[in-house]
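Internal ticket - ligand job 230, 2-phosphoglycolic acid:
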Amino acid sequence: MKLVIANFKSNKNREDYENWISTFEKESSSLPATLNVVLAPSTVDLMLFSNHLLDHKLYPQTNLGVQDISPFPAGAYTGAVGSVNLVGFNVTHAIVGHSERRHYFHETYQDVANKVRECVAAKITPIVCVRKDDIVPQVAALEPSLLAQVVVAFEPVDHIGTGAADTLEDIIATKQLVQASFGKVPYIYGGSVDPHTDPNILHSPEIDGFLVGTASLDPQTFLSLLKLTA
Ligand code: PGA
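stdout (structure tokens):
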């Protein structure tokens, strides 16, 4: 079963999300049952998605994700949204260490490791995003007992938001690097995945799923991608 995560980043407001969900609801029931779809909206709109998921009108294997999570436990951390604040929303996955977080918010390997710890303690699956250069230092920062609990997303920055995905050869070669350090964890790819992506990438048994930014913003485009991926 392929894991496909829609990362809406900071693109949409409440009304945009309502429109997105209503289009997705109408067509998602026709999707084949071979996908685990995770929608990661802005944190302020988690309630909207959570209520729709409870209505069971969305594709049955649709789950809820967050784009980030606090590295801290419950406490005096003004502005932070941590696992304790997500209780009751049925969040199953958290994107951690996205290159945009590492770049714009100066997140360190230790920050990302702390986020993984918070996720695992709350039974939320962390999707750890790495470039090739992050693999070894990120593993060094992580508690060894937590390595087996993560999904790793290979996210080459040169291919994010560019419209040109990486090659299948490089994605598979990087999987060897990831699994040499993390162990045999699920391995997904992100970087300009869209309906025009090489079908050999979309169908490769070596790749356990995709992290999708731009192509998730339009529900029809995302539905097309899901159909091609299934
Ligand atoms: P993109 O973003 O699909 O727009 O390239 C991917 C990502 O940032 O994970």
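Auto-summary: The radius of gyration is 17 Å. Residues 7, 155, 160-161, 190-193, 211-215 surround 2-phosphoglycolic acid (CB under 6 Å).
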